[in-house]
Design brief:
Layout: H1 10-20, E1 23-28, H2 32-55, H3 64-92, H4 105-113, H5 134-159, H6 161-164, H7 171-199, H8 207-214, E2 216-221, H9 223-232
Antiparallel strand pairs: 1-2
This protein binds protoporphyrin IX containing FE.
Length: 238
């Protein structure tokens, strides 16, 4: 009789799956809109950082007035995208993935600090109801509720300065607005650098990036989840 634990090939891996009750499938975790908003947000944040730090005087690849125009247009598009995505997130129930949790947070932090360097497997297994690890949820939640609003509120106050400054010019308040905007900008740039680093720590350098392009990711599912997806959402499972 064949021992399935030592056999190989598709039939053997199906038999192993049935025995272990863990099913390896490609699952569409990122819908078309989710991928669209992820990449358009990434481009807009890059354009805003580039034009913003030109206005600030840190870099000088384009003229000041072009940077101002570029920054103002990109800012309006990003605010519109954020508002629409907030609406989409709530109406589709996707907000559940972003609710922060400290269950397993420490294990994930220790994995990135130590375990990953020792080649240990990631302690977090994505599930259909929770596709982000606790550190991701915590980081995205902070960006969406703190850094994002800090940037657009201070940015709008900066943009409409002439409406609220009055005759005195309100220089102290204006300086505070610029400072808050700069703090938000540095936090956003720090997040982007950390995010790009994390994204390269998958099975291969482009593993997670590919998932955000195609929408599909390798997942471990239960038999019930496979049956559910095949019956109700066949386009989501390969
Ligand atoms: C999303 C909403 C945002 C709004 C409404 C906004 C608005 C503004 C405005 C009005 C200015 C003054 C120059 C200008 O008129 O263009 C400015 C400057 C600046 N912005 Fe933004 N911005 C936003 C997002 C961002 C982001 C995402 C970054 C970087 C990651 C950023 C970085 C900067 C920097 C570094 C400056 C120069 C500050 C100074 O030293 O005067 N901004 N922003």
């Amino acid at each position: 009789m064949t021992d399935i634990s030592s056999a190989s090939g598709p039939a053997a891996s199906k038999a192993k799956e049935a025995k272990s009750k863990v099913f390896h499938r490609k699952v569409k975790n990122y819908s078309r809109y989710e991928r669209f908003w992820h990449w358009s947000q990434a481009i807009l944040i890059f354009v805003l950082a580039f034009s913003g730090f030109t206005v600030h005087g840190t870099i000088r690849f384009i003229p000041f007035h072009s940077a101002v125009m570029m920054h103002d247009i990109a800012a309006f598009v990003l605010i519109f995208l954020w508002l629409f995505t907030a609406f989409w997130t709530f109406t589709t129930g996707q907000w559940r993935h972003f609710v922060p949790t400290n269950a397993g947070l420490w294990e994930v932090i220790m994995h990135y600090l130590v375990g990953m360097m020792r080649g240990q497997p990631h302690p977090y297994k994505r599930t259909l109801s929770r596709k982000q690890n606790p550190l991701q949820s915590f980081a995205y939640f902070s960006i969406m509720t703190l850094v994002g609003p800090l940037l657009w509120l201070s940015g709008l106050a900066y943009m409409f300065y002439s409406f609220w400054a009055g005759n005195s010019g309100n220089h102290e308040i204006f300086s505070l607005v610029v400072l808050l905007h700069l703090i938000g900008a540095f936090l956003m740039v720090a997040f982007v650098i950390g995010h790009i680093y994390m994204v390269t720590t998958g099975k291969t350098l482009i593993h997670y990036t590919k998932a955000m392009i195609t929408g599909f990711e390798d997942m471990e599912l239960t038999e019930a989840e496979v049956t559910y997806l095949e019956a109700h959402e066949p386009d989501r499972i390969k």
